[in-house]
Each structure stands twice: as structure tokens, then as C-alpha cells.
Amino acid sequence: MAKHQANPQPVDAAVTPRFGSIPTFMRLPHLRDPSQLDIALIGVPWDGGTTNRAGARHGPREIRNMSSFMRKVHHVSRIAPYELARVADLGDAPVNPIDLMDSLARIEKFFAKVHAGGCIPLSAGGDHLITLPIFRAIAAKRAIGMIHFDAHSDTNDRYFGDNMYTHGTPFRRAVEEGLLDPKRVVQIGIRGSIYSADDMAFAENSGMRVIYMEEFTKLGVEKVIKEARRVAGRGPTYISFDVDGLDPVYAPGTGTPEIGGMTTLEAQHVLRGLQGLDLVGGDVVEVSPPFDPSGNTALVGATIMFEILCLLADGVARRRKGKKK
Amino acid sequence: MAKHQANPQPVDAAVTPRFGSIPTFMRLPHLRDPSQLDIALIGVPWDGGTTNRAGARHGPREIRNMSSFMRKVHHVSRIAPYELARVADLGDAPVNPIDLMDSLARIEKFFAKVHAGGCIPLSAGGDHLITLPIFRAIAAKRAIGMIHFDAHSDTNDRYFGDNMYTHGTPFRRAVEEGLLDPKRVVQIGIRGSIYSADDMAFAENSGMRVIYMEEFTKLGVEKVIKEARRVAGRGPTYISFDVDGLDPVYAPGTGTPEIGGMTTLEAQHVLRGLQGLDLVGGDVVEVSPPFDPSGNTALVGATIMFEILCLLADGVARRRKGKKK
Amino acid sequence: MAKHQANPQPVDAAVTPRFGSIPTFMRLPHLRDPSQLDIALIGVPWDGGTTNRAGARHGPREIRNMSSFMRKVHHVSRIAPYELARVADLGDAPVNPIDLMDSLARIEKFFAKVHAGGCIPLSAGGDHLITLPIFRAIAAKRAIGMIHFDAHSDTNDRYFGDNMYTHGTPFRRAVEEGLLDPKRVVQIGIRGSIYSADDMAFAENSGMRVIYMEEFTKLGVEKVIKEARRVAGRGPTYISFDVDGLDPVYAPGTGTPEIGGMTTLEAQHVLRGLQGLDLVGGDVVEVSPPFDPSGNTALVGATIMFEILCLLADGVARRRKGKKK
Amino acid sequence: MAKHQANPQPVDAAVTPRFGSIPTFMRLPHLRDPSQLDIALIGVPWDGGTTNRAGARHGPREIRNMSSFMRKVHHVSRIAPYELARVADLGDAPVNPIDLMDSLARIEKFFAKVHAGGCIPLSAGGDHLITLPIFRAIAAKRAIGMIHFDAHSDTNDRYFGDNMYTHGTPFRRAVEEGLLDPKRVVQIGIRGSIYSADDMAFAENSGMRVIYMEEFTKLGVEKVIKEARRVAGRGPTYISFDVDGLDPVYAPGTGTPEIGGMTTLEAQHVLRGLQGLDLVGGDVVEVSPPFDPSGNTALVGATIMFEILCLLADGVARRRKGKKK
Amino acid sequence: MAKHQANPQPVDAAVTPRFGSIPTFMRLPHLRDPSQLDIALIGVPWDGGTTNRAGARHGPREIRNMSSFMRKVHHVSRIAPYELARVADLGDAPVNPIDLMDSLARIEKFFAKVHAGGCIPLSAGGDHLITLPIFRAIAAKRAIGMIHFDAHSDTNDRYFGDNMYTHGTPFRRAVEEGLLDPKRVVQIGIRGSIYSADDMAFAENSGMRVIYMEEFTKLGVEKVIKEARRVAGRGPTYISFDVDGLDPVYAPGTGTPEIGGMTTLEAQHVLRGLQGLDLVGGDVVEVSPPFDPSGNTALVGATIMFEILCLLADGVARRRKGKKK
Amino acid sequence: MAKHQANPQPVDAAVTPRFGSIPTFMRLPHLRDPSQLDIALIGVPWDGGTTNRAGARHGPREIRNMSSFMRKVHHVSRIAPYELARVADLGDAPVNPIDLMDSLARIEKFFAKVHAGGCIPLSAGGDHLITLPIFRAIAAKRAIGMIHFDAHSDTNDRYFGDNMYTHGTPFRRAVEEGLLDPKRVVQIGIRGSIYSADDMAFAENSGMRVIYMEEFTKLGVEKVIKEARRVAGRGPTYISFDVDGLDPVYAPGTGTPEIGGMTTLEAQHVLRGLQGLDLVGGDVVEVSPPFDPSGNTALVGATIMFEILCLLADGVARRRKGKKK
């Protein structure tokens, strides 16, 4: 009881207006020791794996900026994350904007430390390649499942000759490295013209459940939730949210927009339906502020982070209860 | 019959292109005497009650600008407001950008004069606090009901110490002052993270009907209309439309955007379902042009004003008919 | 078999990143002889018929720019247009930005040559008046049908005195000139305030099937497709896609936005339902880049062109097969 | 004495904030009878003569909007125009956005009435072709001189085949029609690549004094003023200010920007040096709001109008004094 | 010697790229105890005194954001502020966005504590009224002088009836309250139309040295520096930099732009000429990000802060040396 | 005589408006064989060496877009480049957006072929690191001199650990590799805060002539030209123009803006003063369209390319004449 009173709390908006103060994630304190935290909010300002329009390197800063709009309790689930868990802004993972392999190593090392501290990471990218070193850090011992919101499967093989690592390849690599269990992966929102008719072969052959946008529309949100829960099952599961899974009117600030995507409200409904899964981390990626004149993409990114944060905090509370018994 | 020919008419777009001429509301004449009018279109360029991003002071000018897109007849209801009623641009209510209490007094006084002239006000804000002095002017004698589109309940109590009047508090104040009958209030589109689990206690305890966005999605538009009509009943009713009730892709130019809102088409459908209520006024608030790079928010504001105007003009015609009998 | 290997192909995005190279439509070669092609992608950079906000003259260039996002195969229908047909960028039709009648003549002449070469035109406007001279070129011998996406019927009569030719009149003129068979026309997405209660009289009296946005919502996509197919029947049919048929959040960059429109996903679903019609051409018009700060309208324009291209290429292949038998 | 108290006055900014009220030019009353005025501020929302990027049709509205920033007295010359002269917003000249020749006729007729009323016009364009019909209205009886700020000489001959009237030709036409005395014309700020080495032949051969940007830099402002006064002499003189005479950082919102232009401060200094000439009218043209994301071009346009207004009002006062003697 | 090694240092850009990490001023640590610092960088996110376009409440956050561009040593003076002085980001002063008088009290109290700790404040506004409570905190015991960059004198008396406190009045109030010695004030860059011919009477009559933009141009930078140093003399002096002193092309993001201002390079030259004065504080005000689409105004604000910081740090070092002797 | 008639010519703007047609550099033909050309215009869409804000990968496309504004003859020098030389758009050099070393190799190889064909390259970047592989291609046999416009010396050593190749290091590498003769290098416009007092040591010690912005202001344009010519001497010389050499109001669309830079007019004057040097190539780099809301940076880039093109074409003509003798 006394416990949660000591939890880090956001700056109080009834005292300090939301446009004021230094913008940390959710206006939480900036702390440096993950072992003191249940959940760490982490920026990964890196877009070196981007094959088209860059700019996701600026994502964490703008998501932090817009996260000042967030308050403290989820209005539907009534989850109060800062009561349930110790959460703070852990700053940014180190990156190298001009060296891809060096960046992968730096990011992995940083997240390994977070993971070793028993802390669940919730990250703001950066391009989607950042999820690979995060997986290397948190899934080294057992493959994890994934709820994956995206317009693209990100299971391509190679680009520009022989490059294995781009933001179009992380989940093929993760499967190959034994980090990701394809049978426990669901991809939601896939769409957009493809390079060849077998672009989706790896995803489909490896056993991932691909819910194309067309199927999403037909199923409706409730059935998508059921399907996602069925696929993820009881094992450890990660939520990876690429904002290009949304229609580009909701997220114009991204590198590879595809029209005809889901609404934020639909995405929020699906996310809220994931409560109770065994969640081990999450990220929001591909927010590219230079292509976001109204700032809405960063606001969406911050709100989706809050949605995921509530799920993670609820999980922390459940585990704690479970242990008590 | 001769009557409506004398009604003020918009500038003719087949003669003067819509980008030309001085932008009044709906391209109507700018008149100054409310007693000559059935319905007055009024700007209230004031955002002194704003606790977050300001800019709604510029709302009336941009809504006027975009209202040049409006034509003369509603394409669904076929209501022709300028045939049914005498409508004009009455200019702006006086305001004081650096003195909140003085502004409340000035606005109330201006609307009291409009009301005394037997004229129904349809206003363009300004932030949502402007609705309070309008209520003081038009609801002093009997409490009114309200159809309220918004992401926020605006029934908070105090901010920044002990400030009773902000754009987050008008409807708590209006209930306390006996201007608003909470039993005849329906709030549509409420959503977004909250400060504490009891943020909605005043609204709910006082008897307001709160249709959260989640319920809105489940009910669908037809049932929302029914519910709104049921709550409003036969008494005098006001329509207050905060553009942040819409998803921010439709209205990015606002101070406190919350993702996951309704579409403009849904809002339009609900509004069209309100025909026949005893409407005594309306407003469109929280259009903040500095955050609206494409201008769409102001276009939405102008179109929603036109939707409400058609309802009000229809009401004027019905009352006139009623009296004739 | 050897045939399609010779078909023009887009620049390979796995070799040349999509932000690189000179932006032709779909990154296809720029060729000049229509008789070598099955389908020609053509820009018509002209907005001299615009009665309100101009800028569609810049449409072709920005659509070309954004069309670099397109890949090679449709992800739903699996149509691979560049395997099925010879497609290239034929450059722009000649225009005269300061002389309306001269422009109509130049455009007609250019498209007549395309048509004479047995090549199907898919055009990027330009304002909607460009469709009239295209019709004069391709429908001189027999009236065609049309699937028409738009907020406006574009069947007005005269503007600004006695002007018969504006972007609000092309389809009245086309019917009068015997180019368009009104009984085989379906207009989808019509909405927005009107000048007078009989604005739609010509469309309705001539026999066009008008699906207002309200009916669209009620029918749903599947029934709209059925109705469109029923109206178009088996005769030669053209697809004309005015981006203002979409809600302006999807297409803010246009001259006459009307809120409350369809989503891109809905439009895409309808288009995909048109496979198998006897399609003789298509266009995407009213993309106005100066009003498109995020570039999304041009991306939408490019993607809709790709959707139509797939339908046209499928038609080319069907006809070829038909002939073989 | 009693006279000037009756002069129209701007809305008082110490009472009504400058973002409020309906935006007329300089917040002056909108009047309709030129014969009651000494100086009329007039919008000409037309860009049908534009050969490149359009949008100047929106110029008058945005210049009106930004003119709310203007106050009442010139801070250097201390000229108080509303004390010296009767000035008002006369609304817009009629135009036809789709018919060039019709527009020229309508504009001429409107200005002829202004001129007949003894009123000096100060106009906001619109593209530069609008100056031609203004000249036809006010210079029919005797050729006038001109101080012309511009990047381009606007003395070309024909475009797009045989079109004599574009925004690149007005001053060749005006000389040919005997409206403009080329010997009394000075062009200031000319620059930018040219189509051929003899592009400037007409201007130079007809006797216009062309001050290229290079000479402007070398001469400095004081000598430019001297030269302009020398060329204009004592005869009736018009000031035509194309905002592309300024460097595009000051006026990005224009159709044909040329880098390397003058600063606004330099232009203001030159204008202030023209006090005392026999000024018979003026205009500010080529403000194109769709290309002006920050709004600065319209602010510049409004301020330059105020600068010219002060010169014109001073001239009115001088003539009045002269007559009294 | 060991001393400066302990001084707070910015995040190292050769390790952490400049787009990464949480944006404090100059990437310095966020500390809370002014008594540990020589110079405190402070945000004052408040624009409640603004009479025209608001938005300066967002200034501190964007200036912090853009200050990541700053490095560690001044390239002309070679002043290395973080070697000479203990400098940090002290966070924001508390404010109340809806209560002017409460805000003045809160700001004064915060700065009084900074001053009591022997720490020199360098602030980012906020509108120009914030300078008044800063003066009350730091100049209570003896009137100070001021180098004031601005388009406006800010010595008006009252607005909107009887309001004494707006961003147009701080320096009249400061003189009246005995905080500011008008004989030791120089105002640089004054320009723009005025309300009446005696707008500048208070400034001039009280003995302030007003360098209008016209005189600035004639004098040139070197003589302006001399004059500023002469006026400031040896007494304690404050530098107040309103970004509207610059031409609006350099600082479009401000509430009351006036064209025809100085360049940033000129302002930087003047500032560099102030080295050695007895500087007791400084501020950069009126940066309004909502009106700053390119972000340049905030970059200018951050760079001007760095320029002033170098002057202040040099002063700290000089005083330390002086004391040692 | 017959010769130059066969030279490639831009699309004729008096026939095809400048907003029409596919945007190649200067509207020239897109050719592929450098050996047929005297001067090749080449895009290098790559920003993998960028340490701060990226986006220069989009530079070539937007510069091509804006280069449609260019005409055919220089208005000051009267150089007509397409009469003097065979010039065309050679397309883009191949690049790899996710592999720095691979990109350097691809770029070098492409330019080596251009150089081998006897063709002078004029390139549009891309970030400044692209100049290094260009030098490797064209200066392998003898070190060249350079006129270098920039805010930064770009002679740093290493970043982010041990990375030798970034856009901050090309000219140190070029000197080390014997490609660039530092004694024949002049750097113009250097400014901005520095990391440490010896940041400029390499440039100064190696013998480069550094004209800081401060010296630029004092010298004035004429003396800067003299100094540049003196340093470059008679040897082969390259012009490298980083747009951040300009003040960011002229070039906001760049990755590392520094306020207080030169004007475009000053830069143009300096460039024009370089006629007659032995020029062997040139480039315009660091145009980053995502940070360029008005498009002015790309327009500046295109115009500076035209300025350099005129110098190069003049050089081609001089050499041809020289050979003839």
C-alpha cells in the first residue's frame, strides 16, 4: 500500500500546465537505473535501417513532447498505471546514426541491461529495425510471440544487394535467430502493393497469422481480438506497433505510408482487448516528425504508448498478485 | 411570402467566386441590430480560459473564411435556411484577451442584448468557456438542456490553485448556477485518459447522460440520436459542438486533441437527427487555426455551423407556423 | 510468354531507392509513342476550369512524385499490371494555362492520337473539366458509361454569366454532346450543401444513378458495388475519380472539399469490385498540391491510379484472351 | 477641421483586439460608393493571367486578414492617412475566374467608376495582369508614369501560341495602348534567368529605366530614390509593387519567385523616398497565399499597401492645400 | 582549476547525436538548486499578457528543443561558457495560464529565489510581460539599465479599458516602480506603424535612447554598439531580446511581427559588442512556435540565448577574477 | 554553328508551362551516356553520412522539381549555357541508403565513368560526404583546389567512436588522400558555435583560407571574390556549395542550420565573380526538403546550380576556343 505512493508520478497538470516543463515521456521523472523500475519508457532515436523516407530518428523527442497530453488513468479500463507499477523515462538507448551494425550492438547492450534489471521495456522508435536488437536482449532465452500492427510484414530478406538488416527485414531475422516464435505471431493491418506475388511467403510459410486489412474489415474488431489472443496464447508476448499500420491520415508522419489502413479508434479497441496476455515489452515505431506537419502522428504515438503502458502495468500488478498467493 | 424575399442572402457564388469578397459568416451581410434577425451568427474570438494550447481566439476569423464554401440549401434535409429565417453575421462579441472576468461580463452583456431582441444566437468560438456567459444571457429565466459533442465533459471544478473558470469547467458552473438542467444534458464522444478515476463523477452524479466514444461505437448513430432526443425531450435545448469531439484527423486545429474520436460524417448524421427539437441556440468552439495547417478544422467548423443553422432555421419556421395556427 | 518480358517495367526499388531517380508515373519509362502501349499514363496539368481554389495544375507532377511509393503487384487481386500489359508514362497532354477553349482543343487532340493508337488512357488531372475533351477523343463514336466518384455531380449548366465550360459542368456537356450515356452513369459520394433544391435535377432527370453519401453509408460497400456494376452493365465504361469524393482528411489538397465523405479504404473496396467491367479509360482529378501540406492527397491520387491501372491491365489481358479464343 | 473627424476610421485595437472582427482592409469600414472617398482600397481576386503557379486569386482575402496588424500613423513620416483623407474598403472588383477577356472588361469597368468618382484606387491583386485594366480605367486620357517594383519587366509579347494577355505582358500592352509613358517608367529589382538575350529589348528600347538588382546593390537606396524621382518627374505616376521584386524569403507566397532580391526594408526605404510625387494610384500584386505557409507574404503585402496609402493620403492633402491657395 | 571540471556540461554530441536525449536548454543537466549555479537557464511558458496572437507559452519547450544545435564554444569570442561558469537548466518558473496577476506573483517569487541564491537568470519566454516580474525579483534594491532589442517600445499605458499589465506595457511599469533607470535604457530596432503620433512619448520623455530601425540602418552596427555601451555605462544592465526586433523572415513565429527589421547577423554583431558590461540577467521572449512552421524562430531564440550566455559567463569570470585580486 | 543547334535544350516554357512535364534538371533531356556531354547534371540522393537531421536524400528530386523555374540565359553575365555546351540530366548516381561504405564505392564508380567520358559533373546532393567519392573519381591524378561555401569547415576527424566518414569530415579525408590541395582551398561563410577551441585547427594548419562570416561582412563581396580567385589560382578548381552556408532563412531545409549566414544575393555575387577559373566540377549539397515547408531551399539549390552551370559552360567554351587556336 505504502508501496505505490513511492511510485514515480507525472508532473501535475493542475499545477504545471501541460505545455510547460521539460518533456519526458508522460511527464515522468527521468531516471537512470532500470532495476528500480517495473516498466521503463525508452527512446531509440535511430532510423539507419530505413529504405525510403527517413526521419524516425526524431520520433522519440516528438513523442515525448506530445506525451504531455496524457493524463494518469485509462478512461475505459480504469487502469492507473502509475499506481500499479514503478514507471519512468529511462532516457534514450545509445545509437550511431552512421553505422548500422554498431547501432544494433549498442541498442542490444542497453536493453540487455534493462532486461537484466527485471524491467519491462516500452520503447519509442526509431525505425522498425530497432525491434530486432530489443528482441536479442529480451528473448535470448526463449522465443516470444508478437502482436504486430503494421501495413507491412517486415519479413523481407535482402535489400540493395546483400543487406540483411533493414526496417523491412527484422522479423525474418528474428525468426531465423530463434527469438520470435512465428506460430505465436499475428500481423494486423497488412496491405499495400507488393513487389511480387510471393512477398508474403516467408510470413505465411513460417506460420505467422496475417490479418490483411481486407480481412480486418470483414472480421471486425471483436473477432480480430479473439484471433490475436488465440495466436498469442499464454506465452510471453510483445506488442510492436508500427504507426503505418494506421491509415496515413492518422499517421502521415511516417516513412512508408499506405492508404486504406485502420483508424486509431480501431487500433485502440484491439489493444484494449489484449489485457491479460503475458506481455513482456512493447514499442511504437516509425513516427517520423519531419513528415508530420500537424503533429498528429506523434500524438498518436504517445497515446498508443499510453495504451500499451496500461496493459503492461496491469500485467505487472497481476504478476505481483500471482506471486503473493 | 413577400417576407422571405427580403431575408438577407449570401453573396451569389455564380457571380462572385467564393474566394472573393470580404469573408463574413456564410457570405451573409454584416448587420448590427439583432432585433431584425431570427438567427444571429456571432464570433467570440477569445481563448482566455484555455489551460493548454491556445489559438481559439483566431477561430471566428478562419471559420468565417472557410464558411465561403457553404451554399444555400442542405442537401439531405433540403432545408433552405435563408428562405426560412432572417439570418446575418452580427459581428463579434466584445472580449478582453487579458482579463478573464471582464471577458465573461462583456460576452454575457452582448448575448443578453441578442436574446432580448428575440434572436437565436449561433456562435463560433473561442474556447469552451464562452458557452457559460452565453448561457447566463439566454438561460437566466429557465434552465436549458444541451446536446454536447466533446471529447471532454468540461465539468471539472478548479485549476491552477483556485480558478473556477476555465474551458474545463463551464458545465459544472452552469449547473451550479441553475442555467443548465443536467437531467437534460447528453454528452457525446467523451474519451481520453483522465486525471483520476472520479473525473466523471460530477457529470454522472448530476444526471447527465454520458455517451463515451466506446458506447457510441457500439450503439451506432441511429441509437445515439434516439438517446439524445430522449434526454433532451421537449424543453429548450442548446447544441454545443466542441470540435475536439471529432477525431483529431478531422480537427487537428484544436487545443486538447484526443485520438479515437468520431468522424465528421457520424457527427453530421447525429446532428441531422436532431431536427424538431426545441432549439434555442448553438455554438462551435475550440477551432484553433494556428494548429490547423491544412485549414480543415475551420472548414469543419463552418460546415457544422451550417448544419446547426439549418436546424435552427427549421425551428424558426416551425414556431412561426405554430403561432399562425 | 516472351511477350511480357519486353513490357516496360518500373525502376527496381531494391536497387534504386524509391526517393531516387526522376519521378515518372509508377517509375515507368517515359515513352512517346502510344501505339506501342496498351495503357498510357498521362498528365493533364491544367486547372483553367476551376471556379474556386486552383492548384490542380500541379497535380500530375506531385502524383508522379508520390507514385514512387507504388510497387508492382496488387496485394488483394494479385493483378500484376506490368506483366499483363505494356504500360508507360506518356508525358503530359499539352495545355494552355490562360486559354480555356484552346486547352480543350489541345487536350482532345492529344487524346485522340492516344485513342487512335489503340491505347487506353489513364490520366492524372488537372481539374475535372479535362474529362470532357478526353471523352471527345475516346467516345466520339459511341456514348460510354461512367463510374464517377465525387462529392459533386458536375452537371451544372453555367457560371459567371454564360460560361458553359467549368469543372462543374463537364458531365452535362458530355451528355448533351452524346459522349456519355446518362443511363449508364453512377455517381458515388455526392454530398455537400447545394445552391438550390434543383441542383441535382439534370443528373436525376437524365437518368444518372446518384448514390449520395447518406445512401452510401446505408448501403455499405458491397451493395454499392453491385449497384455500380448493374448501372454500368456490359458497355464500355470509364472510371472518373475526383479526390473530393473522399473525405477531405484523406484529400485536403483539393479545390472544393466537402466534409463527410468516404474513406480511402471504402473507395478502394468499391474500385476492386469493378474488376471485369469493360473499362476504356480512367482518371484521377482535382489533386491540388498547394493545399496539401502533408502530401497525402497526392499519395492517395497515385494509389487510386494504381488501383485503376490494375483494373485496366486486367481488362487488357481479358480482351487478349478473348481474342485468342 | 470638422471634416477629418468624419473620415472613416479603423476599428480601435485598444477596444477590439486585432484578431477579432471581420477583416476588411486596414479594419476600415466596407463602403460601396467611391465618390464619397479620396482613396479606395480594392481587392482584385483574379489570377487568370498567370503562366506558372497560381493562387493570387486568394491574395486580397489574406492581405485583408493580415492588414489587421496595421495601425494608424506611419512611424517615420508621421503621416496619418485617415486624418488626411477619406479612405475605405470598397470591396472587390468583379472578376471571372475562367474567362480572361471577360475579367479584363469587368475590372476596367469597375475602376472606371472609381476613377469617375474622383477616387484614387489602391488595389490588392491578383496577378500582375490586373494592372492593365486599371490603367485602361485611369489613364485613358493621358499616359502615366510608373514606379515598378518587380523581379520581371512584364514586357513580354506573347505566350502559349498567340496569347497577348498574361501577367508577363501588361506593360508592353500598356505602352502600345498609349496608357503608359515608357520614358517615365522605372523598373526596380529586375533579375532572374531570362529566356533569351533580348528579353529586355522592349523595355530598354522603349525608354524604360531598368534598375537591375545588381545595379540596385551598387547604387544603394538613396541613389535609387533619386533616379526613380528623376524618371517619374512631375507627371501623374502610379506605383505598382509586385511582391516578387522582394527576395523570396520575404515573399515566398508568389507565383514566380526569383532568389537574390531586395529586402523589405530596402523596398520600404525606396517607397518612403517617393513622397511628394504626383501619385494617381497603386497596387500590390502577386501575393499567393497557398504558397505562403507562414503568412509573411500577406503581411508584407498589407504593410506595403500601408506604405503606399500614406504616400497617396499625403498627396491628397497636398492637392487639397494647393487648391485652397 | 579543478573547479571548472566540476561544472555541468552539455551532453556530448560526438557520443549522443543532437536529435537524441531529452531536450533541456543547451543539453545541460536539469538541476533544481540555483545556489549551486552561476547562471540559470529558465523557461517562463506564459503568454497571458499577449494582446494579439498568442503561442509564446510554447516558446521554452521549442527553444529547448532547438538549443540541441548549440555547441560549447563561441566561434568569434572563443568564450567557453561551461568552462567559465556553472550553468544548468533550472526548469520552468511556475505560471498560471488563466490568471495574469497570479502569474506575475508566481514568476516574481521564483526569480527572487534564484536571485537570492546569487545566480544570474537567463530566461526564455513567454511574452514580454514576464520581464516585469523578473525585474521585481532582481532589481528591487537598485534600478538597472537595459539593452532592449525589439520592434516595439513596450512602454504603452493601458489596454482594453483599464488593463495596466500587458506585453505592451512592462517597461513603463518598470520605470514607474523604480526598477528600471530609463536613462540607462537603449531600445534597438523600433519600427512599425503606430496608434498615434505620441506613442513614443513616454520612452522619449523618460530619457530612454530609442534607436529606430531607420537610424540603425544609417548608423551601422559599430556605432550602435558604441551608443548602447555609452547608454548602459558601468551600472548593472539587463539584456532583453524580443525576437520581433528581428525582421519576421528570421522570426516569423512571434505574435506581433513588423516587417523591415534587423537581420540575425546584425543582432549577433551588436550582442557581441556588449562584452564587458556589468550584465545581471537576460531574456529572449515572444518566440511563438505555432506560427513558426520551419522552426527557425526557435533556433534563432536558442542561438541568441547562447550569445547572451557567453556574455554572462564572461562576466562571471571577470567578477571572479576581480574578487581574487 | 550547326554544332550548338544540336545541343540538348530545355523544354520550351512558352509552349509547355513550367509546372508541366516530368521534372528533370533544368527541364533538359534525361540522357545516359556522359561521353556525349560536356556537362552532366547528376543527382546523388544519399544522406547516410548525416550526423544530425537527415532528409538530403530527397534533395535531388526537389531540386529537379524547382529547377523548372530556371530559364536559358544568365541575366547578368548573359552566358547561355545550352548554346555553349552539351548539357543534360544524367539521372542519379547509384546509392545504398543503409550502407555507407557501399555508397561511397558506388558513387565513386559512377563519377569515374563520367570523368572518363570527358564530362564535367555538376551534382545535387545528398549530404556533403558525397563530395569525397566525387573527388576520388575526378581528382585521382592531381589534387584540385576548391571554392567552398559552407557554415562548417567539414574537416573534423571522427564521430560516434571511430567513424572516419561523415558529412563533417570529407575535406580532411580529401586532403589526407591527396585529392584536395589545402593551399588552394577557400572556405566562405564559416560560423556557428564550435565543440572546442581547436575545431578549426586542421583547416587552418593545412593551409586552407578560412573566411569566417565575420570577415566576410567586413571584407564585402568584391574583396571576397579577389581572395577566392587568388587562392584558387590557375589550377583545376571545384565549387562545392553547401546551402547551410546561407542564412537559414534562405535555406531552412537543411540538416545543420546556423543563423547569421550570408544572403543568396551575396552568394550569387561571389559565384559570378569566379568566371574564368579553371573549373572542373561543382555541387550543391545538404538541401533537405522535409525541413523546407515553403520549398525555397530547393529553389535556391536549383538557382545556385544554374549559376554554377553558367560558369562551367563558359569554361567549356573557353577551352574549346583555346584548343582551336
TrEMBL record, chains A, B, C, D, E, F:
Recorded superkingdom: Bacteria
Required cofactor names: Mn(2+)
Gene Ontology annotations of biological process type: putrescine biosynthetic process from arginine, via agmatine
Keywords (A to Z) from UniProt: Hydrolase, Manganese, Metal-binding
Binding site for Mn(2+): 128, 150, 152, 154, 242, 244
GO molecular function, one term: agmatinase activity
Co-factor binding comment: Binds 2 manganese ions per subunit.
Keyword Cell membrane: no
Keyword Oxidoreductase among record annotations: no
SUPFAM superfamilies linked to this entry: Arginase/deacetylase
CDD domains: Agmatinase_PAH (cd11592)
Family: Belongs to the arginase family. Agmatinase subfamily.
Protein name: Guanidinopropionase
Organism: Hypericibacter terrae
Protein encoded by which gene: gpuA
